[in-house]
């Protein structure tokens, strides 16, 4: 298995809250849920620390034989122990993260997807198989309307963003809402999981939601074209295209969004590379 990885922060003066890593038998991508400027999280470490710490622990827990959901649950519990003494883990805005995980053996690959990062399988002779967890998008569709009606970057938009994030928190990790990694290990059981034979797949692509914008928010391209861009020009080329689109609409008038730019991360792997 061979991989390439590219990541780019939304802003140079803020930490990249995405995390991705590849090991000998597994790969992980996490997208930390950022706290809007001016909002408190109850955590002295921050979202970037949370995504990086959970991601590293999860990668090390994905040993052969362990269940993917079990590995994620135990990793969440371990992170809880690391900062329960210094942070308010019951705070509504305590750090959280989406999770995509792959683990492969000699003949097949298992995957896990929790919240709105995406895994795309490029299959022989078929359309790409897009594995995504859209429960947060469904919940947020109505909640985000006041924010999306305002120009990105304005004081009014920033306030609406804080209100949107606070409202979304009321639906986090509960039935009828959406599930994400934060302080509740049982959320791991709500992840989308599956298995695919390696001889059915030509490539795996893991993307944070900042790296899927061209398709699912801007509607400028297709998953097929996205995979072709990464395969031909590299993972960084896809992120460059996203940045160009974002800069063409800085106020979010064409494509309403919470942030003008988002952290963007792509992990691209070949089973027989």
Write the layout of secondary structure elements.
Layout: E1 2-8, E2 18-22, E3 26-32, H1 47-61, H2 68-83, E4 97-104, E5 108-114, E6 118-123, E7 129-132, H3 135-143, H4 145-148, H5 155-169, E8 192-197, E9 201-207, H6 213-216, H7 223-233, H8 235-248, E10 264-270
Antiparallel strand pairs: 1-10, 2-3, 3-4, 4-5, 5-8, 6-7, 6-9, 9-10
Strand order of the largest sheet: 1-10-9-6-7
| CATH architecture assignment name | 4-Layer Sandwich
> What do we call the CATH topology?
Phosphatase 2c, domain 1
**CATH homolog superfamily:** PPM-type phosphatase domain
How does this model look, in words?
The protein is α+β, with helices and mostly antiparallel strands and 273 residues long. It has helices at 47-61, 68-83, 135-143, 145-148, 155-169, 213-216, 223-233, 235-248; strands spanning 2-8, 18-22, 26-32, 97-104, 108-114, 118-123, 129-132, 192-197, 201-207, 264-270. Strand 4 (97-104) and strand 5 form a beta hairpin. It is globular and about 50 Å long. The N and C termini lie close together (5 Å). The mean pLDDT is 93.
A few lines on this structure:
This protein has 273 residues and is of the alpha+beta class. 32% of the residues lie in helices and 23% in strands. It is built from 8 helices and 10 strands.
Tag the structure with descriptive keywords.
PPM-type-like_dom_sf, 273 residues, Protein phosphatase 2C-like protein, PPM-type_phosphatase-like_dom, 5-stranded antiparallel beta sheet
């Amino acid at each position: 298995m061979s991989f390439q990885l590219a990541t780019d922060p939304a802003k140079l003066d803020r930490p990249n809250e995405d995390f991705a890593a590849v090991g000998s038998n597994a790969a992980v991508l996490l997208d930390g849920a950022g706290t809007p400027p001016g909002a408190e999280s109850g955590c002295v470490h921050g979202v970037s620390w949370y995504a990086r710490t959970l991601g590293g622990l999860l990668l090390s827990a994905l040993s052969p034989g362990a269940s993917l959901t079990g590995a994620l649950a135990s990793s969440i519990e371990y992170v809880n122990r690391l900062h329960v003494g210094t942070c308010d883990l019951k705070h509504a805005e305590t750090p959280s993260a989406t999770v995509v995980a792959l683990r492969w053996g000699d003949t097949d690959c298992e995957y896990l997807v929790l919240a709105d990062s995406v895994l795309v399988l490029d299959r022989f002779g078929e359309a790409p198989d897009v594995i995504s967890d859209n429960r947060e998008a469904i919940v947020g569709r109505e909640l985000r309307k006041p924010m999306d009606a305002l120009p990105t970057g304005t004081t009014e938009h920033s306030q609406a963003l804080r209100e949107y994030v606070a409202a979304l928190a009321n639906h986090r990790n509960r039935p009828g809402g959406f599930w994400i990694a934060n302080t509740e290990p049982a959320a791991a059981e709500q992840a989308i999981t599956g298995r695919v034979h390696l001889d059915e797949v030509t490539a795996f692509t893991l993307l944070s939601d900042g790296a899927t914008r061209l398709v699912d928010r801007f509607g400028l391209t297709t998953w097929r074209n996205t995979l072709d861009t990464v395969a031909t020009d590299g993972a960084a080329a896809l992120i460059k295209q996203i940045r160009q689109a974002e800069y063409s609409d800085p106020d979010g008038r064409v494509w309403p969004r919470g942030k003008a730019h988002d952290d963007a991360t792509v992990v691209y792997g070949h089973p027989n590379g």
